[in-house]
Specification:
- With 515 residues, the chain is an alpha+beta fold.
- It folds into 3 domains: 8-95 and 206-303 and 345-396, Bira Bifunctional Protein, Domain 2 (BirA Bifunctional Protein, domain 2), CATH 3.30.930.10; 97-199, no CATH class; 405-514, Rossmann fold, CATH 3.40.50.800.
- The strands form 8 sheets. Strands 3-14-15-21-18-17-16 form a 7-stranded mixed β-sheet, with helices on both faces. Strands 6, 7, 8, 9 and 10 form a 5-stranded mixed β-sheet that branches. Strands 25-24-26-27-28 form a 5-stranded mixed β-sheet, sandwiched between helices.
- The chain is globular and about 85 Å long.
- It binds glycyl-adenosine-5'-phosphate.
- Residues 223, 225, 255, 257, 266-267, 270, 272, 274, 342-345, 382, 384-386, 388-389 line the site of glycyl-adenosine-5'-phosphate.
Amino acid sequence: MSQPESSLMSRLVSLSKRRGFIFQASEIYGGLNGFWDFGPLGCQLKNNLRDQWWHDMVECPPLGPDGKPLSIVGLDSSIIQHPRTWEASGHAAGFADLMVDCRESKHRYRADHILCLEVFYEKAGVKKPLGVLSALEGDEFDTTIIKKAKKLMQKAGGGEILPIEASLAVPFTTLSKEQQGLVIGLDAENVGTLTEPRAFNLMFHTYVGVFQDEDSKVYLRPETAQGIFLQYKNIMDSSRVKPPFGVAQVGKSFRNEVTPRNFIFRAREFEQMEMEFFCPPEDGMMWYEFWVAERLRWWESVGCRKENLFGHVIPENEVAHYSKGTTDIEYRWPFTAPNFGELEGVAYRTDYDLKQHAAFSKTNLDYIDQEAKRRYVPHVVEPASGLTRGVLLLLAEGYQYDESRASPEWLKIKPSLAPIKLGIFPLVNKDGMPEVAEKLYLDLRQTYTCQFDAKQSIGKRYARMDEAGTPFCITVDGETLKDQAVTIRDRDTASQERVALDKVRAYVAAKLASA
Ligand code: GAP
Protein backbone atom coordinates (compact mmCIF):
# COMPACT_ATOMS: atom_id res chain seq x y z
CA MET A 1 0.00 0.00 0.00
CA SER A 2 1.52 3.33 -0.98
CA GLN A 3 1.86 5.77 1.91
CA PRO A 4 1.61 9.55 1.79
CA GLU A 5 4.87 11.52 1.57
CA SER A 6 4.50 13.38 4.86
CA SER A 7 5.81 11.80 8.06
CA LEU A 8 3.47 9.84 10.30
CA MET A 9 3.82 12.49 13.01
CA SER A 10 2.71 15.33 10.74
CA ARG A 11 -0.22 13.21 9.57
CA LEU A 12 -1.20 12.52 13.19
CA VAL A 13 -1.01 16.21 14.03
CA SER A 14 -3.20 17.18 11.09
CA LEU A 15 -5.72 14.35 11.61
CA SER A 16 -5.89 15.35 15.30
CA LYS A 17 -6.70 18.91 14.40
CA ARG A 18 -9.08 18.12 11.54
CA ARG A 19 -11.14 15.68 13.59
CA GLY A 20 -10.97 17.53 16.92
CA PHE A 21 -8.67 15.28 18.90
CA ILE A 22 -5.97 17.80 19.78
CA PHE A 23 -5.53 21.50 19.02
CA GLN A 24 -2.65 23.83 19.66
CA ALA A 25 -3.49 25.86 22.78
CA SER A 26 -4.20 29.57 22.19
CA GLU A 27 -4.02 28.94 18.47
CA ILE A 28 -5.77 32.17 17.50
CA TYR A 29 -3.03 34.11 19.32
CA GLY A 30 -0.31 32.20 17.52
CA GLY A 31 -0.17 29.32 19.99
CA LEU A 32 1.88 28.80 23.12
CA ASN A 33 4.76 26.40 22.75
CA GLY A 34 4.34 23.21 24.78
CA PHE A 35 0.62 23.61 25.53
CA TRP A 36 -2.20 21.63 23.91
CA ASP A 37 -5.98 21.47 24.13
CA PHE A 38 -7.89 18.21 23.84
CA GLY A 39 -10.93 18.65 21.61
CA PRO A 40 -14.24 16.75 21.70
CA LEU A 41 -12.78 13.43 20.49
CA GLY A 42 -9.45 13.89 22.26
CA CYS A 43 -10.84 14.53 25.72
CA GLN A 44 -13.18 11.56 25.35
CA LEU A 45 -10.27 9.34 24.33
CA LYS A 46 -8.11 10.64 27.18
CA ASN A 47 -10.92 10.12 29.69
CA ASN A 48 -11.39 6.56 28.44
CA LEU A 49 -7.69 5.74 28.84
CA ARG A 50 -7.68 7.36 32.28
CA ASP A 51 -10.79 5.43 33.35
CA GLN A 52 -9.30 2.16 32.13
CA TRP A 53 -6.13 2.80 34.14
CA TRP A 54 -8.19 3.74 37.21
CA HIS A 55 -10.31 0.64 36.83
CA ASP A 56 -7.31 -1.66 36.41
CA MET A 57 -5.29 0.04 39.15
CA VAL A 58 -7.81 1.04 41.84
CA GLU A 59 -11.17 -0.64 41.27
CA CYS A 60 -9.95 -4.01 40.05
CA PRO A 61 -6.17 -4.18 40.54
CA PRO A 62 -4.26 -7.27 39.47
CA LEU A 63 -3.77 -10.20 41.79
CA GLY A 64 -0.46 -10.20 43.62
CA PRO A 65 2.24 -12.86 43.25
CA ASP A 66 0.47 -14.88 45.98
CA GLY A 67 -2.80 -14.84 44.01
CA LYS A 68 -4.50 -12.46 46.48
CA PRO A 69 -6.14 -9.18 45.38
CA LEU A 70 -3.97 -6.10 45.86
CA SER A 71 -5.15 -3.16 47.85
CA ILE A 72 -4.85 0.13 45.97
CA VAL A 73 -6.76 3.31 46.83
CA GLY A 74 -7.14 6.65 45.06
CA LEU A 75 -6.14 10.22 45.83
CA ASP A 76 -6.65 13.61 44.22
CA SER A 77 -4.14 15.97 45.79
CA SER A 78 -3.53 19.68 45.19
CA ILE A 79 -1.42 20.88 42.31
CA ILE A 80 0.14 23.46 44.64
CA GLN A 81 1.70 22.05 47.80
CA HIS A 82 3.74 23.59 50.59
CA PRO A 83 7.03 24.74 49.02
CA ARG A 84 9.04 22.66 51.50
CA THR A 85 7.64 19.62 49.64
CA TRP A 86 9.96 20.33 46.73
CA GLU A 87 12.95 20.93 48.96
CA ALA A 88 12.40 17.54 50.56
CA SER A 89 11.81 15.76 47.26
CA GLY A 90 14.95 17.25 45.73
CA HIS A 91 13.09 19.09 42.96
CA ALA A 92 13.98 22.58 44.22
CA ALA A 93 17.70 21.91 44.02
CA GLY A 94 18.00 19.17 41.47
CA PHE A 95 15.05 19.15 39.06
CA ALA A 96 17.00 20.76 36.33
CA ASP A 97 17.97 20.05 32.78
CA LEU A 98 21.25 21.08 31.30
CA MET A 99 20.46 23.55 28.58
CA VAL A 100 22.39 25.18 25.83
CA ASP A 101 21.71 28.53 24.17
CA CYS A 102 22.55 29.33 20.59
CA ARG A 103 24.05 32.82 20.47
CA GLU A 104 23.17 33.18 16.81
CA SER A 105 19.59 31.90 16.59
CA LYS A 106 18.75 32.79 20.23
CA HIS A 107 17.14 29.38 20.63
CA ARG A 108 17.49 27.26 23.75
CA TYR A 109 17.91 23.48 23.66
CA ARG A 110 18.22 20.63 26.10
CA ALA A 111 21.87 19.63 25.99
CA ASP A 112 21.13 15.91 26.00
CA HIS A 113 18.81 16.34 23.02
CA ILE A 114 21.46 17.81 20.77
CA LEU A 115 23.14 15.03 18.90
CA CYS A 116 26.47 15.69 17.28
CA LEU A 117 28.42 14.04 14.55
CA GLU A 118 31.88 14.72 13.22
CA VAL A 119 31.77 14.88 9.41
CA PHE A 120 34.56 14.46 6.92
CA TYR A 121 34.94 15.24 3.28
CA GLU A 122 37.31 13.97 0.69
CA LYS A 123 39.01 16.03 -1.99
CA ALA A 124 41.59 14.64 -4.38
CA GLY A 125 41.89 11.52 -2.26
CA VAL A 126 42.61 13.50 0.92
CA LYS A 127 40.23 13.08 3.84
CA LYS A 128 39.69 16.19 5.95
CA PRO A 129 37.42 16.90 8.93
CA LEU A 130 34.62 19.25 8.00
CA GLY A 131 33.31 20.14 11.44
CA VAL A 132 30.96 18.89 14.12
CA LEU A 133 27.36 19.04 13.04
CA SER A 134 24.31 18.87 15.25
CA ALA A 135 20.68 17.93 15.00
CA LEU A 136 17.95 17.68 17.59
CA GLU A 137 16.69 14.37 18.91
CA GLY A 138 13.65 13.38 16.87
CA ASP A 139 14.66 15.49 13.89
CA GLU A 140 15.24 13.89 10.55
CA PHE A 141 18.88 13.71 11.43
CA ASP A 142 20.16 12.65 8.05
CA THR A 143 18.43 15.43 6.13
CA THR A 144 19.51 18.15 8.54
CA ILE A 145 23.06 16.92 8.64
CA ILE A 146 23.47 16.47 4.92
CA LYS A 147 22.08 19.93 4.18
CA LYS A 148 24.52 21.51 6.59
CA ALA A 149 27.41 19.38 5.48
CA LYS A 150 26.86 20.47 1.88
CA LYS A 151 26.87 24.13 2.90
CA LEU A 152 30.08 23.72 4.85
CA MET A 153 31.70 21.82 2.06
CA GLN A 154 31.00 24.64 -0.37
CA LYS A 155 32.77 27.02 2.03
CA ALA A 156 35.67 24.58 2.15
CA GLY A 157 35.96 24.67 -1.63
CA GLY A 158 34.08 21.55 -2.70
CA GLY A 159 34.68 17.82 -2.44
CA GLU A 160 32.74 14.67 -1.56
CA ILE A 161 31.11 14.20 1.85
CA LEU A 162 31.94 10.79 3.21
CA PRO A 163 28.91 8.67 4.10
CA ILE A 164 27.45 9.88 7.38
CA GLU A 165 26.38 7.35 9.98
CA ALA A 166 23.56 8.99 11.97
CA SER A 167 23.72 6.14 14.47
CA LEU A 168 27.21 7.32 15.50
CA ALA A 169 25.86 10.65 16.75
CA VAL A 170 26.52 11.44 20.41
CA PRO A 171 24.88 13.95 22.79
CA PHE A 172 26.47 17.41 22.98
CA THR A 173 27.13 16.83 26.69
CA THR A 174 29.57 14.01 25.92
CA LEU A 175 31.83 16.18 23.72
CA SER A 176 34.99 17.73 25.08
CA LYS A 177 34.96 21.53 25.63
CA GLU A 178 37.16 21.90 22.57
CA GLN A 179 34.78 19.87 20.40
CA GLN A 180 31.77 21.79 21.77
CA GLY A 181 33.43 24.96 20.49
CA LEU A 182 33.47 23.49 16.99
CA VAL A 183 29.82 22.59 16.78
CA ILE A 184 27.60 24.26 14.25
CA GLY A 185 24.37 25.24 15.97
CA LEU A 186 21.10 23.62 14.93
CA ASP A 187 19.78 26.56 12.98
CA ALA A 188 22.93 28.65 12.88
CA GLU A 189 25.33 29.36 10.05
CA ASN A 190 28.52 29.76 12.03
CA VAL A 191 30.73 27.50 14.08
CA GLY A 192 30.85 27.72 17.88
CA THR A 193 27.54 29.47 18.54
CA LEU A 194 26.39 27.14 21.31
CA THR A 195 27.03 28.06 24.96
CA GLU A 196 28.27 25.58 27.54
CA PRO A 197 25.44 23.57 29.11
CA ARG A 198 23.85 25.31 32.12
CA ALA A 199 21.33 23.98 34.67
CA PHE A 200 17.76 25.24 34.33
CA ASN A 201 15.06 24.39 36.90
CA LEU A 202 11.94 23.01 35.30
CA MET A 203 9.39 24.01 37.92
CA PHE A 204 6.90 26.78 37.19
CA HIS A 205 6.31 29.10 40.12
CA THR A 206 3.63 31.49 41.23
CA TYR A 207 2.72 33.31 44.45
CA VAL A 208 0.07 32.61 47.06
CA GLY A 209 -1.74 35.53 48.66
CA VAL A 210 -1.47 39.26 48.13
CA PHE A 211 2.29 39.68 48.52
CA GLN A 212 4.54 38.48 45.77
CA ASP A 213 7.87 37.80 47.42
CA GLU A 214 10.14 34.86 48.22
CA ASP A 215 8.01 33.95 51.25
CA SER A 216 4.85 33.54 49.17
CA LYS A 217 6.51 31.68 46.30
CA VAL A 218 5.01 28.28 45.47
CA TYR A 219 5.41 25.79 42.64
CA LEU A 220 3.09 23.99 40.26
CA ARG A 221 3.77 20.29 40.85
CA PRO A 222 6.18 18.72 38.36
CA GLU A 223 4.84 15.25 39.26
CA THR A 224 1.75 13.95 41.03
CA ALA A 225 3.78 11.53 43.16
CA GLN A 226 4.76 13.87 46.01
CA GLY A 227 1.11 14.57 46.90
CA ILE A 228 0.79 10.85 47.61
CA PHE A 229 3.78 10.78 49.97
CA LEU A 230 2.41 13.77 51.89
CA GLN A 231 -0.93 12.01 52.49
CA TYR A 232 0.42 8.49 53.04
CA LYS A 233 -0.14 8.63 56.79
CA ASN A 234 -3.67 10.10 56.56
CA ILE A 235 -4.60 7.43 54.02
CA MET A 236 -3.36 4.62 56.26
CA ASP A 237 -5.15 6.09 59.27
CA SER A 238 -8.44 6.62 57.44
CA SER A 239 -8.67 3.76 54.98
CA ARG A 240 -7.50 0.77 56.99
CA VAL A 241 -4.88 -0.11 54.40
CA LYS A 242 -1.48 -1.37 55.47
CA PRO A 243 1.64 -2.37 53.55
CA PRO A 244 1.66 -3.76 50.96
CA PHE A 245 -0.79 -1.25 49.48
CA GLY A 246 -0.84 1.35 46.75
CA VAL A 247 -2.11 4.89 46.29
CA ALA A 248 -2.97 5.96 42.76
CA GLN A 249 -3.45 9.43 41.37
CA VAL A 250 -4.20 10.94 37.96
CA GLY A 251 -3.70 14.62 37.32
CA LYS A 252 -1.95 17.53 35.73
CA SER A 253 1.75 18.14 36.12
CA PHE A 254 3.77 21.07 34.87
CA ARG A 255 7.35 21.28 33.68
CA ASN A 256 8.92 24.25 31.99
CA GLU A 257 10.56 21.95 29.45
CA VAL A 258 13.45 23.55 27.62
CA THR A 259 12.48 21.99 24.33
CA PRO A 260 8.85 20.85 24.25
CA ARG A 261 8.73 18.59 21.21
CA ASN A 262 7.01 15.96 19.21
CA PHE A 263 3.42 17.12 19.61
CA ILE A 264 2.03 16.08 23.02
CA PHE A 265 4.98 13.77 23.76
CA ARG A 266 6.88 16.42 25.70
CA ALA A 267 4.62 19.25 26.76
CA ARG A 268 4.85 21.89 29.49
CA GLU A 269 1.43 20.99 30.90
CA PHE A 270 0.52 17.31 30.79
CA GLU A 271 -1.25 14.60 32.74
CA GLN A 272 0.28 11.73 34.66
CA MET A 273 -1.10 8.47 36.03
CA GLU A 274 1.08 7.50 38.97
CA MET A 275 0.85 4.89 41.67
CA GLU A 276 3.05 4.60 44.75
CA PHE A 277 3.14 1.08 46.11
CA PHE A 278 4.20 0.91 49.79
CA CYS A 279 5.67 -2.36 50.99
CA PRO A 280 7.93 -3.87 53.68
CA PRO A 281 11.59 -3.09 52.84
CA GLU A 282 12.53 -6.72 52.28
CA ASP A 283 9.84 -7.10 49.57
CA GLY A 284 10.80 -4.04 47.50
CA MET A 285 12.68 -5.88 44.77
CA MET A 286 9.91 -8.45 44.35
CA TRP A 287 7.28 -5.73 43.90
CA TYR A 288 9.53 -3.82 41.50
CA GLU A 289 9.77 -6.87 39.24
CA PHE A 290 6.04 -7.50 39.63
CA TRP A 291 5.10 -3.98 38.53
CA VAL A 292 7.48 -3.90 35.56
CA ALA A 293 5.86 -7.06 34.16
CA GLU A 294 2.38 -5.88 35.05
CA ARG A 295 2.75 -2.49 33.36
CA LEU A 296 4.11 -4.01 30.15
CA ARG A 297 1.13 -6.34 30.13
CA TRP A 298 -1.26 -3.42 30.71
CA TRP A 299 -0.05 -1.38 27.76
CA GLU A 300 -0.58 -4.46 25.61
CA SER A 301 -4.09 -4.81 27.03
CA VAL A 302 -5.03 -1.33 25.81
CA GLY A 303 -4.05 -2.21 22.27
CA CYS A 304 -0.30 -1.73 21.96
CA ARG A 305 1.48 -4.38 19.93
CA LYS A 306 4.07 -6.32 21.91
CA GLU A 307 6.80 -5.64 19.35
CA ASN A 308 6.34 -1.89 19.85
CA LEU A 309 6.97 -2.09 23.61
CA PHE A 310 10.28 -2.50 25.33
CA GLY A 311 11.30 -2.73 28.98
CA HIS A 312 14.53 -0.73 29.14
CA VAL A 313 16.43 -1.54 32.31
CA ILE A 314 18.28 1.67 33.21
CA PRO A 315 21.93 0.89 34.00
CA GLU A 316 22.84 1.18 37.68
CA ASN A 317 25.11 4.17 37.15
CA GLU A 318 22.30 6.14 35.47
CA VAL A 319 19.44 5.66 37.97
CA ALA A 320 18.73 8.27 40.66
CA HIS A 321 20.96 7.78 43.71
CA TYR A 322 18.03 6.64 45.88
CA SER A 323 16.68 4.14 43.36
CA LYS A 324 17.52 0.47 43.59
CA GLY A 325 16.25 -0.14 40.08
CA THR A 326 14.40 1.65 37.30
CA THR A 327 12.91 0.22 34.14
CA ASP A 328 11.53 2.53 31.51
CA ILE A 329 8.64 1.12 29.55
CA GLU A 330 9.40 2.37 26.09
CA TYR A 331 7.34 2.58 22.92
CA ARG A 332 8.49 2.69 19.34
CA TRP A 333 7.29 6.26 18.65
CA PRO A 334 7.03 7.42 15.03
CA PHE A 335 9.87 9.90 15.74
CA THR A 336 12.16 7.39 17.47
CA ALA A 337 11.57 4.40 15.19
CA PRO A 338 13.28 2.01 14.76
CA ASN A 339 14.32 2.93 18.30
CA PHE A 340 12.15 3.37 21.38
CA GLY A 341 11.37 6.27 23.74
CA GLU A 342 9.92 6.54 27.26
CA LEU A 343 6.24 5.95 27.88
CA GLU A 344 6.32 5.10 31.57
CA GLY A 345 8.95 4.73 34.28
CA VAL A 346 8.80 2.01 36.92
CA ALA A 347 11.14 2.95 39.77
CA TYR A 348 12.03 1.26 43.01
CA ARG A 349 12.38 4.45 45.09
CA THR A 350 13.23 2.70 48.39
CA ASP A 351 12.27 4.69 51.53
CA TYR A 352 13.88 7.87 50.18
CA ASP A 353 10.79 10.05 49.75
CA LEU A 354 9.09 9.13 53.02
CA LYS A 355 12.35 9.61 54.95
CA GLN A 356 12.96 12.98 53.32
CA HIS A 357 9.43 14.20 54.13
CA ALA A 358 9.70 12.82 57.67
CA ALA A 359 12.94 14.78 58.17
CA PHE A 360 11.78 18.02 56.51
CA SER A 361 8.33 18.06 58.15
CA LYS A 362 9.55 16.63 61.47
CA THR A 363 6.66 14.15 61.31
CA ASN A 364 7.06 10.51 62.12
CA LEU A 365 6.09 8.55 58.99
CA ASP A 366 6.95 5.08 60.33
CA TYR A 367 4.49 2.30 59.87
CA ILE A 368 3.86 0.33 63.05
CA ASP A 369 3.21 -3.31 62.29
CA GLN A 370 1.24 -4.41 65.36
CA GLU A 371 1.20 -8.08 64.43
CA ALA A 372 4.92 -8.43 63.74
CA LYS A 373 5.72 -5.99 66.56
CA ARG A 374 8.05 -3.86 64.49
CA ARG A 375 8.14 -0.40 62.94
CA TYR A 376 9.62 0.62 59.64
CA VAL A 377 9.46 3.19 56.86
CA PRO A 378 7.89 1.39 53.90
CA HIS A 379 9.76 1.05 50.64
CA VAL A 380 8.06 2.34 47.51
CA VAL A 381 7.75 1.04 43.97
CA GLU A 382 6.36 3.59 41.54
CA PRO A 383 4.85 2.94 38.10
CA ALA A 384 4.62 6.50 36.68
CA SER A 385 3.13 7.00 33.27
CA GLY A 386 1.99 9.88 31.13
CA LEU A 387 -1.74 9.95 30.37
CA THR A 388 -1.30 12.45 27.56
CA ARG A 389 1.69 10.48 26.27
CA GLY A 390 -0.57 7.41 26.38
CA VAL A 391 -3.10 9.20 24.14
CA LEU A 392 -0.32 9.80 21.62
CA LEU A 393 0.46 6.09 21.74
CA LEU A 394 -3.18 5.20 21.02
CA LEU A 395 -3.22 7.56 18.03
CA ALA A 396 0.14 6.39 16.65
CA GLU A 397 -0.62 2.72 17.22
CA GLY A 398 -4.14 3.02 15.81
CA TYR A 399 -3.29 5.02 12.70
CA GLN A 400 -4.01 3.10 9.49
CA TYR A 401 -3.64 4.09 5.89
CA ASP A 402 -5.56 2.28 3.17
CA GLU A 403 -6.30 3.98 -0.14
CA SER A 404 -9.05 1.53 -0.99
CA ARG A 405 -11.25 2.84 1.82
CA ALA A 406 -13.57 5.84 1.72
CA SER A 407 -11.29 7.48 4.24
CA PRO A 408 -7.72 6.31 3.57
CA GLU A 409 -6.75 7.49 7.05
CA TRP A 410 -8.56 5.69 9.83
CA LEU A 411 -7.99 4.81 13.47
CA LYS A 412 -7.98 1.28 14.80
CA ILE A 413 -8.45 2.07 18.47
CA LYS A 414 -9.51 -0.67 20.86
CA PRO A 415 -13.35 -0.39 20.85
CA SER A 416 -13.63 0.01 24.62
CA LEU A 417 -11.35 3.07 24.41
CA ALA A 418 -12.75 4.60 21.22
CA PRO A 419 -14.17 8.10 21.81
CA ILE A 420 -17.41 7.24 19.98
CA LYS A 421 -18.65 3.67 20.16
CA LEU A 422 -21.55 3.86 17.71
CA GLY A 423 -22.45 5.96 14.70
CA ILE A 424 -26.20 5.89 14.08
CA PHE A 425 -27.52 6.92 10.67
CA PRO A 426 -30.80 7.05 8.76
CA LEU A 427 -29.85 6.06 5.20
CA VAL A 428 -31.96 8.92 3.86
CA ASN A 429 -33.88 11.66 5.63
CA LYS A 430 -37.36 10.46 4.75
CA ASP A 431 -39.79 7.55 4.78
CA GLY A 432 -39.70 7.21 8.56
CA MET A 433 -36.00 6.37 8.69
CA PRO A 434 -34.87 9.41 10.76
CA GLU A 435 -37.53 8.66 13.38
CA VAL A 436 -36.38 5.04 13.86
CA ALA A 437 -32.72 6.07 13.88
CA GLU A 438 -33.37 8.79 16.43
CA LYS A 439 -35.28 6.41 18.68
CA LEU A 440 -32.37 3.96 18.54
CA TYR A 441 -29.93 6.79 19.22
CA LEU A 442 -31.87 8.04 22.26
CA ASP A 443 -31.90 4.52 23.66
CA LEU A 444 -28.28 3.51 22.98
CA ARG A 445 -26.68 6.77 24.09
CA GLN A 446 -27.79 5.97 27.64
CA THR A 447 -25.12 3.28 27.62
CA TYR A 448 -22.65 4.15 24.87
CA THR A 449 -21.18 7.31 23.42
CA CYS A 450 -23.10 7.57 20.16
CA GLN A 451 -23.14 10.01 17.29
CA PHE A 452 -26.22 10.60 15.19
CA ASP A 453 -25.32 11.64 11.66
CA ALA A 454 -27.77 12.28 8.86
CA LYS A 455 -25.62 14.51 6.66
CA GLN A 456 -24.14 13.64 3.25
CA SER A 457 -23.77 10.22 1.64
CA ILE A 458 -23.54 7.06 3.73
CA GLY A 459 -19.96 6.55 2.43
CA LYS A 460 -18.91 9.95 3.75
CA ARG A 461 -20.53 9.20 7.08
CA TYR A 462 -18.64 5.89 7.36
CA ALA A 463 -15.45 7.74 6.45
CA ARG A 464 -16.00 10.31 9.20
CA MET A 465 -16.57 7.56 11.75
CA ASP A 466 -13.48 5.62 10.59
CA GLU A 467 -11.33 8.69 11.09
CA ALA A 468 -12.74 9.06 14.61
CA GLY A 469 -12.00 5.38 15.32
CA THR A 470 -15.70 4.49 15.84
CA PRO A 471 -15.90 0.68 15.92
CA PHE A 472 -19.52 0.23 14.78
CA CYS A 473 -21.98 2.12 12.58
CA ILE A 474 -25.68 1.32 12.57
CA THR A 475 -27.76 2.26 9.52
CA VAL A 476 -31.53 2.40 9.39
CA ASP A 477 -32.55 1.86 5.77
CA GLY A 478 -35.64 1.42 3.60
CA GLU A 479 -36.01 -2.21 4.68
CA THR A 480 -35.92 -1.46 8.40
CA LEU A 481 -39.59 -0.54 8.63
CA LYS A 482 -40.49 -3.82 6.95
CA ASP A 483 -38.06 -6.28 8.55
CA GLN A 484 -37.42 -4.43 11.85
CA ALA A 485 -33.68 -4.86 11.31
CA VAL A 486 -30.68 -2.57 10.76
CA THR A 487 -27.26 -2.89 9.15
CA ILE A 488 -24.25 -2.85 11.47
CA ARG A 489 -20.88 -2.12 9.89
CA ASP A 490 -17.62 -3.17 11.50
CA ARG A 491 -14.85 -0.53 11.31
CA ASP A 492 -11.94 -2.97 11.00
CA THR A 493 -13.31 -5.25 8.31
CA ALA A 494 -15.85 -2.86 6.73
CA SER A 495 -18.17 -5.90 6.67
CA GLN A 496 -21.88 -5.46 7.35
CA GLU A 497 -24.38 -7.58 9.21
CA ARG A 498 -28.16 -7.41 9.38
CA VAL A 499 -29.31 -7.36 13.00
CA ALA A 500 -32.87 -7.29 14.33
CA LEU A 501 -33.69 -4.01 16.08
CA ASP A 502 -34.51 -5.77 19.35
CA LYS A 503 -31.15 -7.59 19.24
CA VAL A 504 -28.99 -4.50 18.62
CA ARG A 505 -28.22 -3.90 22.28
CA ALA A 506 -27.12 -7.47 22.91
CA TYR A 507 -25.13 -7.52 19.66
CA VAL A 508 -23.23 -4.32 20.53
CA ALA A 509 -22.62 -5.43 24.13
CA ALA A 510 -21.18 -8.75 22.97
CA LYS A 511 -19.00 -7.14 20.30
CA LEU A 512 -17.61 -4.53 22.68
CA ALA A 513 -16.92 -7.12 25.34
CA SER A 514 -15.03 -9.41 22.97
CA ALA A 515 -13.06 -6.81 21.02
N1 GAP B 1 7.10 10.50 39.66
C1 GAP B 1 8.07 10.08 38.70
C2 GAP B 1 8.03 10.84 37.46
O1 GAP B 1 7.38 11.86 37.35
P1 GAP B 1 9.00 10.89 35.04
O2 GAP B 1 9.72 9.80 34.29
O3 GAP B 1 9.64 12.21 35.12
O4 GAP B 1 8.77 10.27 36.49
C3 GAP B 1 6.68 9.93 34.37
O5 GAP B 1 7.55 11.03 34.46
C4 GAP B 1 5.97 9.94 33.04
O6 GAP B 1 5.31 11.19 32.85
C5 GAP B 1 6.90 9.81 31.83
O7 GAP B 1 7.20 8.46 31.57
C6 GAP B 1 6.04 10.41 30.73
O8 GAP B 1 5.10 9.47 30.24
C7 GAP B 1 5.28 11.50 31.47
N2 GAP B 1 5.94 12.80 31.23
C8 GAP B 1 7.01 13.30 31.87
N3 GAP B 1 7.33 14.52 31.38
C9 GAP B 1 6.43 14.79 30.39
C10 GAP B 1 6.21 15.89 29.53
N4 GAP B 1 6.98 16.96 29.56
N5 GAP B 1 5.18 15.82 28.63
C11 GAP B 1 4.38 14.74 28.60
N6 GAP B 1 4.54 13.67 29.40
C12 GAP B 1 5.54 13.69 30.30
